[in-house]
Each structure stands twice: as C-alpha cells, then as structure tokens.
Automatic annotation (TrEMBL):
Name of the molecule in the record: DNA-directed RNA polymerase subunit
First-listed, main subcellular location of the protein, grouped into a coarse class: nucleus
Transmembrane domains' residue ranges: none
InterPro entries reported for this sequence: RNA_pol_Rpb7-like_N_sf (IPR036898), Rpb7-like (IPR045113)
Keyword line: DNA-directed RNA polymerase, Nucleus, Transcription
Record field: compositional bias (Basic residues): 213-222
GO cellular component, one term: RNA polymerase I complex
Lineage of the organism: Eukaryota, Viridiplantae, Streptophyta, Embryophyta, Tracheophyta
Domain of life assignment: Eukaryota
Amino acid sequence: MEGLMVSDANLTVYIHPSMANKIRGAILSQLSSLLFKYDEMFEGVLLAYQVDGRSRSARILPGLVPHIGVKLRASLLLFSPKPNMFIEGKVVKLGRESVHATVLGFSSAAIMLEDIRAEFKYKTRDGVGTFTSRYNKHHLIKVGSIIRFIVKSLDEEMLHISGSLVPPNTGCINWLSKHEVDDASQKERGIKRNRANGVEENALEQDPSFFHSSKRSRSHKD
C-alpha cells in the first residue's frame, strides 16, 4: 500500500526537569503522545517509532518553565497519504450513495457515489447491500471487503480520507489480486508464444530453403 514510509529522523525531545532521573521513560512518553496524530513536521501520521540512539548530554532551555532538551535519532513509521496514491481499507458501512471504510484501523475513509465508477451497481439481497460489477458478478464490494482506492484528499485534523473508485484497478482486493495474477500469466504466455514464433521466423530467415523444401515435399506427395 502506498502512503507508508520509514523515516530516519534527528529529533529534540523536551523533558520537564522533574523527569531528569527518568530520561528514557520521559522520551518514550513524549514520542508515544504523538502516535496516531497528524504531525506537520513529519508530514504524516506517526504509527510506530524506534529510538536508535540519543546524546549523552542535555541542554537546559530557559523559560517560565525550564525544560531539558535531549537530542536523539529515531526510526519512524509514517502514514502520509497524498492525492492519487493507492491505499487500502476495510469496508465498515455501505449504502446506495457511498462506501465507508477504515484505513489501518484508525483513519476513516468515504467514497461518494460520484466517485464510484459506473461499472459498479448497487444491489440488495436478503437485506445485504453490495456494489457489484456489471461485467463480473464475482467482483463485489460489501461490508467486510478489503478495497483498494485512490486518495482524493485528507482532512488532517479529523484523519478523514476522501477516496475514489473510478480507476479500473480499484475495487475489492481479493478479486483484483486474483485477476492481476491471471492477466500477468496471460501476458507471460503471450510473450512465450511471441518468442516461439520469433524463433521460427528467424529460422526461416536464416534458412529459406526450409520453406521451399517443405513445399516441394507436399507437392511431391500430391
């Protein structure tokens, strides 16, 4: 899935002097407070972190409430969805006008009817709604489906994504994965056939007498 990235960062963590004898715990507490929130400095949502090392020296920063500045290196796992990126989510609600999903278990996403391509038609059966492909009844989107869609926009404060199912390579992941493999297999078989034909054509070019001798042989039999 696009939008996920690991970043190595040099950070400065500000710690209250009362935590001077518990520096490591204070650092982890500060970083943990940033989890699952959009941070402009990181340009994304912090999902996980690992502290790789920290300076042994700290600097006391003056002010009304003095703090200790500790420099450290950390590896950060960030979720930074941008427009036109392909991401995945689990459908939690579905109706005639929209599909709603959760992304990575914490971010919400909504895809409105105008952003669902005409291939999908809303149907209900036994009280269960689905968006089913007009071309293949096995390609359907329902509650519980894992879908791939593209990002239109992100509300950074609400962590709400506006998405689209217009591109042809969006939809239910299970169906897309299977048919992408099938398409790849067909292309591979086509390449092999072309290569085989190419070998035969090359053989004829190198030895045109092969074709003539075969023709004479058939005439002789006639």
